[in-house]
Design a protein that fits this description.
Distance between the termini: 8 Å
Number of helices: 6
Largest sheet: 5 strands, antiparallel
Order of helices and strands: HHHEEHHHEEE
Structural class: alpha+beta
Strand content: 25-35%
Helix content: 25-40%
């Protein structure tokens, strides 16, 4: 499938549909007992689309008055990888269906946390397909 066609289909609305803010809140509620105790919100963003890869990123966005410390986000890929509320398998399957790919033919992996700024860290989600 053409990378530009895939990129055109991955709109902010599609990303919000497959990873709504409620999922971030539910994740932190499971962790802390109250999502208000989190230091950041998690949003899904598109980084780029290549010939056989879609690179998304979980954007870890600092909440007002909170600190987005590296020690809180650097271990997050391992947690996101297996957490049932985040459900990366389901998220990737939903995205594949949205862009016209066969969900059974896509693979994914998480990268390491990147500190973009003191207010934004990202965790790459790399999706490969044939």
């Amino acid at each position: 499938m053409d990378a530009n066609k895939i990129k055109d289909k991955i709109t902010p609305q599609v990303l919000e549909t497959i990873f709504p803010i409620e999922r971030s809140n539910d994740f932190f509620e499971a962790f802390y007992g109250d999502s208000a105790d989190s230091h950041f919100d998690i949003r899904l963003g598109l980084e780029k689309v290549e010939e056989s890869r879609i690179i998304l990123a979980f954007h870890l966005i600092q909440r007002p008055g909170k600190c987005l410390a590296c020690n809180m986000t650097y271990g997050l890929p391992q947690v996101l990888d297996r957490h049932p509320i985040i459900n990366i398998n389901g998220l990737v399957s939903d995205l594949a269906s949205q862009v016209g790919l066969d969900p059974s033919q896509v693979q994914w992996k998480l990268g390491n946390t990147h500190e973009k700024s003191s207010e934004l860290h990202t965790v790459p989600l790399i999706i490969t397909f044939n």
